[in-house]
């Protein structure tokens, strides 16, 4: 059974940092793109960041550029999201995803596997 399990969410004050992890099991995703999405209450799920299969290419939504960093460790089948300078607008459930394209885009439809999500709450 393939599983993606997120961890590292929590409550943090504005300006603080969190590091999310997403560990995969059941198959290897070393050739897959890995990504993070988020969904705030009453809003649609939105793309946050993507890293290509090798880790050499990353892509971010504009509002997190310079604050968030996505990385991966293929030996551990794990992807990370380092979030710095957090803002209340970053409050959401964060989901990790894996897609079969080596370099996938920002559309949820390009990702076949999803985690259950981890809550990130940023207080002002």
Offer a few descriptive terms.
11 strands; 49% strand; mainly beta; 4-stranded antiparallel β-sheet; 124 residues; 7-stranded mixed β-sheet
Produce a short descriptive summary.
It contains no helices and eleven strands.
Structure, described:
The protein is mainly β and 124 residues long. Helix content is 0%, strand content 49%. The chain is built from no helices and eleven strands. The protein has strands at residues 3-7, 10-13, 18-25, 33-39, 46-51, 58-60, 68-73, 78-83, 92-99, 113-114, 118-123. The strands form two sheets. Strands 2, 4, 5, 6, 9, 10 and 11 form a seven-stranded mixed β-sheet that branches. Strand 5 and strand 6 (58-60) form a beta hairpin.
> If helices are DSSP runs of H or I spanning 4 or more residues, what is the number of helices?
0
Label the overall shape. globular
Contiguous runs where pLDDT drops below 50 for at least 5 residues: none
Structural class: mainly beta
User: What is the straight-line distance between the termini?
Assistant: 40 Å
Quick check: average pLDDT? 96
Give the proportion of residues in helices.
under 10%
Proportion in β-strands? over 45%
Which series of helices and strands comes N to C? EEEEEEEEEEE
- Whole-angstrom Rg: 13 Å
| Largest sheet features | 7 strands, mixed
Give the number of DSSP strands. 11
